[in-house]
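the two lines:
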Amino acid sequence: MSGVRVLVGTRKGAFVLRSDGRRKDWDVSGPFFGGWEMYHIKGSPVDPNRIYASQTTGWFGQLIQRSNDGGVTWEPVGNQFNYDGVPGTHQWYDGTPHPWEFARVWHLEPSLSDPDTVLAGVEDAALFQSTDGGQIWSELSGLRNQDSGSSWQPGAGGMCLHSIIVSPKDPDRIFVAISSAGAFRTDDGGKSWRPINKGLHSEGLPDEDAEVGHCVHHITMHPSKPDTLFMQKHWDVMRTDNAGDSWVEISGNLPTDFGFAIDVHAHDPETVYVVPIKSDSEHYPLNGQLRVYRSRSGGNEWEPLTKGLPQSNCYVDVLRDAMSVDSLDRCGLYFGTTGGQVYASNDEGDSWETIVRDLPAVLSVEVQTLA
Amino acid sequence: MIRVVLPAHLKTLVNERSEVQLEVDGVASQRSVVDALEGRYPVLLGTIRDPTTKRRRPFVRFYACEEDISHDDPEAPLPAAVVSGDEPFFVIGAMAGG
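prediction for all of em together
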């Protein structure tokens, strides 16, 4: 029987939520790695029992955990993320050169074809790859060493590489996004990269149309349309239909276009979901109403989805990696909040139920659809 | 025999409930004790000190004989009471955060 497994990373541990295809009754297991920040947990599309997890604290640094049995048991694998060669510098907050320093892994992206191959997006922003199940990590340094790298500057949340998308049409084409630097693309498997930020406008920049420096919060893609990407920028929801060569704004009638999470319906590449957040200084929903907005037209026309979500006195945030979709029929959606709730919809967002409500602050949510 | 007391998170990583006992080759110092610790438990690589520079992580401290020895020379011999096993060598996760 089909089912789903929801992998939840929180500020104080990981949780695994399981249900059958009806997605009504849930088994909650965890915390795994209690007390550690679990930035991201994601399973291999090839082998769903192979799961990678980023485990970190400010005290004891970074570990990578791997499960071969669907999250029941875990083993630590390699945690050495050494920048390639002499790392050089990027800009610090005061504009002075600052050496690249590894802080943590924000995002793990298992390969579409090999369960032992996985990409890692890290802070300070760089992309690493392992081809042996997470034991040895090597930097794809062409990204950091492309022309603009030395000018990147961290934002308030640190200079993190948080989004990684490998094109299902061409494994040599990879998209990444970096907080306060922007989006980048390689067409040669990571050897060379170029910024893909044309069309982004950021009022916080001296040159609002600069080639780099935009605070991209998250990017997503539907696998059937690999040249179309959707972006939640600091402010503005954007789309591209030419693999990032140019972007257009699709915020349309959203009540606020600040936010972090964005995702695409599993079966309809023109149905997009965002969670609008009031502003960059008030990281909570507008008017205390937690609402997912859905566009069935690829953007611009958005409808609020409220059934089952708190519509008063709700002041949580939904972070960039904390929303995910399953591929059952009807498509399911899941998101977690900084207040520790994980919400699920088994009807494309029309209605929502709370799976759990008192976890630590949720950093990431990934769902696996199981045969 | 050196007795090492680890902080709770690192005890969990090495699956030990109480203190760890280590044989250390040569002079027992902060560095040689952590070398031995990482040798027995590779999962600790990078959790106590930077694996390349060998610098102690900022929020990790070393205590011995009721003294904070974190800023001592990492190669300096540990107190005799630690070397004899009468006193443990503490790896501490510093209090932080208010």
